[in-house]
Amino acid sequence: MLLLGLLALSLPVLGWGRAFDLGQSTRCVPIPRHMGVCQDVGYSEMRLPNFLGHTSLEAEVVPRSEDWRPLLQTGCHAQARAFLCSLLAPVCLDTFIQPCYSLCVAVRDSCAPVLACQGHEWPSELDCDRFPAQEDMCLSPIQKHTSLFSKGLPQPACQDCPMVVGLPPLKRVLDALCLNDFAVKAKLSRQHLPSGEAEFTVEGRVEFVRQGPLLPYDTQSMLRQWLLINRGCAQTLLRPGHSQLYLLTGTVRSDGTVTLDSLFPWHKKDAHLVLATRKWKHHRC
Q1: Which of 34, 216, 237, 283 has the most other CB atoms within 10 Å of its CB?
Q2: How close are the terminal C-alpha atoms of the chain, in Å?
Q3: pLDDT tens for residues 48-62?
Q4: What architecture (CATH level 2) is domain 155-282?
Q5: Fold match between 4-137 and 155-282?
Q6: Is residue 174 within 8 Å of 280, Cβ to Cβ?
Q7: Residue 11: which pLDDT band, with cuts at 50, 70 and 90?
Q8: Handedness of CA 129, 133, 135, 138 (dihedral sign)
C-alpha cells in the first residue's frame, strides 16, 4: 500500500493552476497494466483527466509516465513514485487528493539535481507553489524516509565522464591505484527493456582490488546507481546489448559522495592490468 496509507481525507484541496480545473467532470478508469511506473501503488483506479491535464491514457498518460522511469530508477527519493503517480494517476475517491507543498519540495530537492545530471530541468508544471500547504488535506511526506542521499552510505555523484584508458602501461595503472581511494573490478551492462529504454546493471560479483571506504554489501548497488544517475556517460561507456568488464578507480569525497576517476577496460590480452592487480598487494606508492 504505497499511497493509500499516506492519504488524509478531509476538505477539498486547492486547484492545479491552469493544468487542471477541479470543477471539470472526471471519470474513474483502471490504471493500465502496462503503465508499470504506477503499478502496485495501493489502488487500481485513477481519475481522468489527471492533475497534469492529460485526457488520454494511451496518447498521454502512459507515455508521460515512462518519461519518468529513468529518474525513478535512481531512487533519488523514497516518495518520488508516490508523488508522481498522485499526479499522473490520481486515486479515484470522493475528494481530490494532490501532493502537499512539503512533499513536492522534499522530492524536488532530492531529485532535481539527478534530473539535471540527466540533462533536464525540474518541470514548470511541477512548481511546488501550485500545491496546497495544508498537511491534513493532501499527500504529505513521511518524515522518516530513506533516500538516495540520506542513507549514510557512500553515494554516487553526478560528474563528467571519467577517463577511459585502453591498454594502459603498468605504471599508469599502479599510479591510479595509489592516487584514488578505491579500485574495483566490475562488469557493467547495458540492455534494452521491452519499451526500448536502456537498462544499466552491474553483472555478477564486484571484486575489490583496493576497498578503501567502500562497503562490500553496498558497492554493487552504488555502482548501478552511478550508471543510472550518469546515464549520458553510461551510454558512451557501454554498447547496446553488451557488457564490459572494467577496473574502476575512484574517490569518496568528504561529503560521502563517490566519483569515478579512471576506467580501464579489462581485456584478456591486457597483461598489464593483471600484473598491476597482482603487484598492488606489495606495491609502495
Answers
A1: 237
A2: 53
A3: 999 999 999 999 999
A4: Beta Barrel (2.40)
A5: no
A6: yes
A7: very low
A8: negative
Q: Cα(266)–Cα(258) distance, rounded to whole angstroms?
A: 22
For 131-140, 143-152, 220-229, which range has the lowest pLDDT when averaged over its residues?
143-152
Backbone angles phi, psi at 204, to 5 degrees: 70, -160
Residue 103 CA to residue 83 CA, distance in Å, equals 7
Q: Which CATH class is domain 4-137?
A: mainly alpha
Residue 24 has a pLDDT of 63
Around Cβ 199, how many Cβ atoms within 10 Å? 16
Look up the pTM and report it. 0.82
Q: Do the Cβ atoms of 43 and 4 come closer than 8 Å?
A: yes
Query: Do the strands 257-265 and 163-164 form a parallel or antiparallel pair, or are they unpaired?
Result: parallel
Domain ranges of the chain: 4-137, 155-282
- Please write the tens of the pLDDT for every residue from 203-238: 999 999 999 999 999 999 999 999 999 999 999 999
Q: pLDDT tens digits, residue range 170-200?
A: 999 999 999 999 999 999 999 987 667 789 9
> Is pLDDT larger for residue 143 or for residue 169?
169
In DSSP notation, the chain reads: --SGGG----SPPPPBTTTB-TTS--EEEEPPTT-GGGSSSS-SEEEES-TT----IIIIIHHHHHHTHHHHHTT--TTHHHHHHHHHS-B-SSS--PBPHHHHHHHHHHHHHHHHHTT-PPPGGG-GGGS---GGGSBPPPSS---TTSSSS-EE---PPPEE-SS--HHHHHHHHHHSSEEEEEEEEEEE-TTS-EEEEEEEEEEEEE-TT--TTTHHHHHHHHHHHTHHHHHHHS-TTEEEEEEEEEEE-TTSEEEEEEEEE--TT-HHHHHHHHHGGG---
